[in-house]
Write a structure and sequence with these properties.
By secondary structure, this protein is mainly beta. It has one helix and eight strands, in the order H-E-E-E-E-E-E-E-E. It starts with a helix and ends with a strand.
Length: 138
């Protein structure tokens, strides 16, 4: 029996090929980012509203609190999105740049993490964020 992580990778590969991602109910992928500027890491939004990242992590772009590269999908930490939950949830959309990620929640709040030298995280700083931070004024 495959683990859910293996199912997720398989589902991501199927989405990339234009096939249905449904390998099981747990790993139905709602959105997978495949953008030219995002060359070294991947971001997946599962149908349950959780976000998973994997790949190179030199700018904290995986949102997991460290810079260790992850070869398999790893769930993004809650960061500023919750004081009680360990992982970010209730996400409806994701976007990514070269070293950062932005997400929108069901209530319209936006969070971002990763490289922030030019203020691209939108949190009124130029400090890189290791975990999700709230986007200001949205």
């Amino acid at each position: 029996m495959k683990s859910s992580t293996a199912d997720g990778i398989y589902a991501a590969q199927k989405v990339y090929r234009g096939e249905s991602a449904a390998t099981n109910d747990d790993w139905y992928i709602k959105m997978l980012l495949i953008l030219p500027q995002v060359k070294s890491f991947s971001v997946a939004l599962k149908a349950d509203g959780t976000v998973w990242t994997w790949g190179l992590n030199t700018s904290y772009q995986l949102g997991i609190g460290d810079t260790m590269t992850r070869p398999v999908p790893t769930q993004v930490l809650a960061g500023a999105s919750s004081t009680t939950e360990k992982y970010i949830k209730n996400i409806t959309a994701v976007a990514a740049g070269e070293g950062h990620v932005l997400v929108a929640t069901t209530d319209g709040t936006m969070y971002s993490w990763g490289y922030n030298n030019w203020g691209q995280l939108g949190n009124n700083t130029t400090t890189t964020a290791t975990k999700p931070v709230k986007v200001s004024n949205i």
